[in-house]
Amino acid sequence: MAAVMRRTASPKAAAAAAVASLLRRSAPPRHAGRLARFLGGASAASSGNAAIASGEFVPWHNGGGVLHRAASVDPTAVVEAGAVVHSGAVLGKDVVVGSGAVVGPSVSVGQSTRIWYNVVLSNCSVGEFCTIHNGACIGQDGFGFFVGEDGQVKKKPQASAQYFALDSIEISNGHVLKSFLLLQILHAKIGNHVEIGANTCIDRGSWRDTVIGDETKIDNLVQIGHNVVIGKCCMICGQVGIAGSATLGDYVTLGGRVAIRDHVSIASKVRLAANSSVTKDIQKPGDYGGFPAVPINEWRRQTANLRIFSKKDGGRR
């Protein structure tokens, strides 16, 4: 049976090896280190339960969780029961990984960071003294699809290492292949002293890294799309949605349920009222509100005028 399984798996393994070889030959020198870490993570990710069964994962002495033999974990780190730390991951001094959490291949977590229960980290780095609350997911693929010529909805080429077998990826020439593969080595980068609320999702980058600056605080149930860059000391309230490739400066405050469209830029020290929607760049500091977002005093006048008009219109009827 084992021999049959090896023969069945060999075409995928050969495809993955060919892709990895092409990556090593074609990637720019500046990406060499990141590429090596990524390919190591790809190998670990593809092994799955077989790796655990074969003894590549071992119990951790401090907390009862398990980690891959190729992970680098400080002796003071705690990995609680039910947590898993994968190949190439790095946990710094006094890190705590809660039960049910998964630290994916080649993820790094800085000193004194607390990873709460059922958090999933992949394709990312987390700085020092951070707190990531229950159920948060960081580093997964962004939301990107297109309708092909056959009328079917297809995912844009930003898949992670598990798709190296190229089962559903259409590649027309070598140039496209190289472009696709370069996308694979981008990540989400979380700064120092960052707090991320429960069930918040932060997608990894496709053409640039997704970045969360130092001291930024993010509430529960926030969606941050791929390629988003957020500056330092920002405050993002619950149910905010930030579409892909948006850029926020430093000290930006977003009230609850603020929506930010893709590819817009927001200057430092901007504050947005709850339920506002940003549809174009905001280039000056200040307070804004409404849909589309405008300076706060203008929004208040619009709201007052609408009420006056509504009363007059109702009186005529």
Automatic annotation (TrEMBL):
Taxonomy, superkingdom: Eukaryota
Protein name (record): UDP-3-O-[3-hydroxymyristoyl] glucosamine N-acyltransferase non-repeat region domain-containing protein
Organism: Oryza punctata
The entry's keywords: Acyltransferase, Lipid A biosynthesis, Lipid biosynthesis, Lipid metabolism, Transferase
Pfam families tied to this protein: Hexapep
Family annotation (InterPro entries): Hexapep, Hexapep_transf_CS, LpxD, Trimer_LpxA-like_sf
Gene3D superfamilies in the record: Hexapeptide repeat proteins
A Gene Ontology biological process term: lipid A biosynthetic process
A molecular-function term among this protein's GO annotations: N-acyltransferase activity
Cellular compartments per GO CC: membrane
